[in-house]
Amino acid sequence: MLKTVDADRVRRLGPTRAGDMPLDTMGDESDEALLMRYATGDQAAAQALTLRLTPRVYAHACRMLGIPAEAEDVTQEALLRLWRMAPDWRQGEARVTTWLYRVVANLCTDRLRRARGVALDAVPEPEDEAASAADRMLEKSRAAALQAALNLLPERQRQAVILRHIEGLSNPEIAEIMETSADAVESLTARGKRALSAELSGRREELGFSDD
């Protein structure tokens, strides 16, 4: 019988800063191959996949929600759902990351709708010890301003903008995650960028934002 990865293990392994994560010792194997190995009872494969995916899932949830503690809960729930469905995973039907982004989006949307009208905190940025105090303050201000502006977008615009311009995914990849068309993704990102530009227009020079 398949032994499910428990919640405590997920919690111990992440989320954390990427530089603090243990090394991925199975980096030459795909996410899908590791998930299939876990489905046959390979716990080492599950640990390697958890170490690989946790930083990405947590970062995405943090940008969607703006609250680190909430993002941790979403990360743990998304990964636990992945382990539960592993025995039913069929190779070639989808990418693990695509499936996870979709789950994270749904979990975040549920939390955002429950918390409608409640102010969201800014995501704290890891401190760069080599940076000056002024640089750190500017970076923190930029992160807070961007997160606050993202928080004002409708959920699907926010998701599309994050996936395209922060995660760097292509429109077809985002369309698969969001279960829509590439044209719809293009429209969502364009409207989201316009809204962000309008929200930040008075602070561009102060925060060092470019037109990109």
Fold topology:
Layout: H1 7-13, H2 31-39, H3 43-65, H4 68-85, H5 96-114, H6 133-152, H7 155-166, H8 171-178, H9 182-200, H10 204-207
Keywords: DNA-binding, Sigma factor, Transcription, Transcription regulation
Family: Belongs to the sigma-70 factor family. ECF subfamily.
GO molecular function: DNA binding; sigma factor activity
Describe the structure.
The chain is mainly α and 212 residues long. The protein folds into two domains: 1-120, Rna Polymerase Sigma Factor, Chain: A; 122-212, Winged helix-like DNA-binding domain superfamily/Winged helix DNA-binding domain (Arc Repressor Mutant, subunit A, Orthogonal Bundle). The chain is 66% helix and 0% strand. The chain has ten helices and no strands. It has helices at 7-13, 31-39, 43-65, 68-85, 96-114, 133-152, 155-166, 171-178, 182-200, 204-207. Helix 2 (31-39) packs across helix 3. The longest helix has 23 residues, at 43-65. The chain starts with 6 loop residues before the first helix and ends in a 5-residue tail after the last helix. Mean pLDDT is 77; it is low at 1-7, 9-23 and 117-131.
